[in-house]
Amino acid sequence: MSPGLPFSKETFNSSHELDPASRLLPASSLTSQHLLIRPTEDIQSFLKKDLCVDRLNHIHQYLWLAGRPMPPKPLNFQIATSRDIVADHRIDMHLVWEHPQRLHLKPLPRYILDAEFWAANLMTCEGPCCTQARRNHISPDPVTTCTKDIYKCALGFLYSYISLVRFECDLAIAHEHHLVPKDVTWEKWLRFVHQLLDKGATNPSNVNLRYLYGELRLSQLNKIYAFRYASPLRGYQFTYQTYGELFRDYLGPLTAGTIYIALVLTAMQVGLATSHLGENASFQNASWGFTIFAILGPLIGVLLAGIVGVFQFCTNLVVTKRLTQRQFALYEDQKVQNQVP
């Protein structure tokens, strides 16, 4: 069988019409099985993945260690404090900042600015619980059905942007960093924000608990996750792109500690050369113990860093191997299903 044309001649013609939902959603999305599909195939699953912040909700009681319970500061303040704004579509990285002063912000999607999309997908539910309710002639309520989490996350996400874009210069910054669609003018934004405020969008009871906090520090989130799951090697977000970065991060403090140890040993050597401290038994014992520590301490630190690196490498290797086997088995199943007799 000869391969077919992957797209039609009318694809790039202006007369080629798209359905309303497709105009608002991304071109494609990933399923839980890492397969690319059209978002319109399962809008509820897409919205849950795009808006829900379950990972932060699981550690909500510890978020005060990573940030303050107050709205985020406006974009002009973020720029003034030398923070680099990074457009990041991962919702769990929205309003998370990392060293050196890099703030992740999820761009405002078009669908969340469309009232008809809200009415069709965020105010109603097509899940099993609501389907059963309809069969029993019970009117689904977005406050009590399974859309509650998505609805609150969507309002919370808007709540964060109300605070981020307070002034006209904030909107210009948002346009520059592709955070807000270009066709949203200051007048449109004013009307939009005023309606949200009038309808109680900033009421804490209407938003997801995560958005009661503003900016969150990634290093603290990593520590919270390590504590919460009793695993020092498990963090909220792995920040290293290479193993060299991992070793530099671990060996940096060790280098500073080694310099301090060298200064202390030099001071002890001078002290032992004096008659007052050289004949002091306690100072001699302390010098002996610290000398042993100076020899073994850095060596143990290097070994621990090496063990961490090897463990991370082996873990990534096993996870990658399992993922590869699972994905290629899935691809083979798809080939069989799509095979034309």
Please give the structural blueprint.
Blueprint: H1 20-24, E1 29-30, E2 36-37, H2 43-51, H3 54-57, H4 75-80, E3 84-87, E4 96-98, E5 102-105, H5 115-122, H6 128-135, H7 148-164, H8 168-176, H9 186-198, E6 216-217, H10 218-228, H11 243-273, H12 275-278, H13 281-338
Parallel strand pairs: 3-5, 4-6
Antiparallel strand pairs: 1-2, 4-5
Structure description:
This protein has 13 helices and 6 strands. By secondary structure, the protein is mostly helical. It folds into 2 domains: 208 residues, no CATH class; 96 residues. A hairpin with a 3-residue loop joins strand 4 and strand 5. Helix 11 runs antiparallel to helix 13. It is extended, with a radius of gyration of 28 Å. It starts with 19 loop residues before the first helix and ends with a helix. About 4% of the residues have low confidence.
Give the strand content. under 5%
Proportion of residues in helical segments? 40-55%
Strand order of the largest sheet: 3-5-4-6
Q: What number is the mean pLDDT?
A: 82
Tally the beta strands.
6
Major β-sheet profile: 4 strands, mixed
C-alpha Rg (nearest Å): 28 Å
In short:
With 341 residues, this protein is mostly helical. Helix content is 54%, strand content 5%. Residues 131-145 have low confidence and may be disordered.
Keywords:
mainly alpha; four-stranded mixed beta sheet; 5% strand; two-stranded antiparallel sheet; 13 helices; single chain; 2 domains
